[in-house]
Amino acid sequence: MVQTSWCFTYHIFILWFFLGRGIGVVVLTGDRTNMGRIADLVANLPRVETPIAREIKNFIDIITWFALAMGVIFFALSLFMGYGWLEAVIFLIGIIVANVPEGLLVTVTACLTLTAKRMAARNCLVKHLEAVETLGSTSTICSDKTGTLTENRMTVTHLWFDGKIYAADVSFKGRLTVDDVQPLPTYMALMRVAALCNRAEFKAGWDKEENILKSQCTGDAGEQALLKYSEIALGSIQKWRQRCIKVTEIPFNSSNKYQISIHMDTESKNQKHMLLMKGAPERILELCTTIYAEGVEQTLTAAWRDKFQRTYDALGGQGERLLGFCDYTLPTDKFPPDFNFETDPPNFPLKNLRFLGLISLSDPPRATVPDAVSKCRTAGIRVVMVTGDHPVTAVAIARICGIIGKESALANDFIVRDVSTKETKSRLLRVNPCLADSICVEGSHLFHMSSDELEFIITHYTEIVFARTSPQQKLIIVESFQKMGEIVAATGDGVNDAPALRKADIGVAMGITGSDVSKEAADMILLDDNFASIVCGVEEGRIIFDNLKKSIAYTLTSNIPEILPFLLFVIIGIPLALSTVTILCIDLGTDLMPAIALAYERAESDIMRRQPRDPYKDRLVNKR
């Protein structure tokens, strides 16, 4: 049904689309749009109170009731002892003024302002300043891998086809030094998929004579690496893309774990269509029934699958990210040149495809990450990796980063994996935690786990990696840690990460690769996408709490000598040494500056060697 008003058009509010391309027509802007109205409503919603705000409110409530109680008691006592109304009121005001910490507001402001400056210098943008103190209480950090723990600077390192592993050896000038693979038909078919089933492009003005590996591109980091390598291998990707016109595509998403594009070869006799696919190797392999090897299409036997698994373990064990590639030539009698392809649901085959091979990408961990993870361990903070990568790759990177100790036993090594997903999950849960310190939980296992089983893993394993997870499962992971009483910081960069970022005690979005939705949901944005910045935030959060405790302790200590002259005057008649005006002068003239100065205190030497603060027990003001 066609709507006559755009207000009732189903697609006018683009909340149902997260991937792909399109052309839009602007009909309204700003707050007049549907998105603008919702943003305005969200902006007017009351914000959740942070722990530091609750602590300060709790302290103010205590000191207010104490000051009022003391004032009323001595007001009544003054009248009882025969003092006039005027003198009794002066005593009341003096007692209340002596108890009020006039410098608290300025001290808190100074603490938060100084923290904002220090965090900004460390490439960390704090949206809600009070949330930094919550970061100081963090006991668990659920971190992404790509771009956060690693540099998100990918390069092609190995290729596997024809049953052999080839090193992608590229010289400084950007030309292959190993030329013997170029004439191989499987290699050319593999490169064709890498070049065409790829949304990355060289930026305008690119000079072909310059170093290809250093050229500027648009698109995902992994696709950029494939684009550059394909340009080296094929000579000119643009010619291939002009010859093989893209007809339709299904972008990669976390559910399917593959990307599809269909191209029409304009130079072929019948202008045939080719289906090209890349994605998670195990996902691609299960859609294939044949394999292209040494120029011959063969049945994908158990022997080939065994070679595939051994290659995956070998390359993935080095921390390399692997992608699988396959293709399928669509028959011209069913798919003529003018065929209308649909993607939802697909009206073309997605099974019985031809497997081509694997390409591995290297994304080195950031140099600062191992030290940052070590500091987290010392500070009593558990770092958990939550990634969409294959378990083998995830565990390898986790060991390099220090999330899993190099000598730590992995629970997964104690089970046989050639069984169903449910049985693998059951065997994993039956492993004695005394035999292993670490565990890798796959998204497929997590799907079949109950909340009690997940809590068992969280409780009994100190080193945890979640692999092949979806954004929805990240939310479940965050909630499970919170149920165990943990204060959780979570990182994310995608639209689908927003629920987990909002649910976490501290949501941390990526400034470079992060989507606008994730940045809006987060409390903090890492401008350099660097995990080490989170550790800096933890330290700053602990400094804030320490300095506020020092300032409040100083303020309360100075209240005693201010109250004492009033007590002695009322009880035993000693002449009043401090008037109300004098107390105000002392508080604003001498007490204020030292209280503010305490906000400039540097971190204690053991601040990152303490266990995380328990927000329910370790209060800003306690009985001491």
Automatic annotation (TrEMBL):
GO CC, alphabetical: plasma membrane
InterPro entries, alphabetized: ATPase_P-typ_cation-transptr_C, ATPase_P-typ_cyto_dom_N, ATPase_P-typ_P_site, ATPase_P-typ_TM_dom_sf, Cation_transp_ATPase_P-type, HAD-like_sf, HAD_sf, P_typ_ATPase
Residue ranges annotated for the Cation-transporting P-type ATPase C-terminal domain, each copy included: 575-623
Keywords: ATP-binding, Membrane, Nucleotide-binding, Translocase, Transmembrane, Transmembrane helix
Entry's Gene Ontology BP terms: intracellular potassium ion homeostasis; intracellular sodium ion homeostasis; potassium ion import across plasma membrane; proton transmembrane transport; sodium ion export across plasma membrane
Organism: Romanomermis culicivorax (Nematode worm)
Transmembrane residue ranges: 12-30, 62-83, 89-112
Record membrane topology: Multi-pass membrane protein
Subcellular location field: Membrane
PROSITE patterns membership: ATPASE_E1_E2
Record-given protein name: Cation-transporting P-type ATPase C-terminal domain-containing protein
Superkingdom assignment: Eukaryota
Single GO molecular function: ATP binding
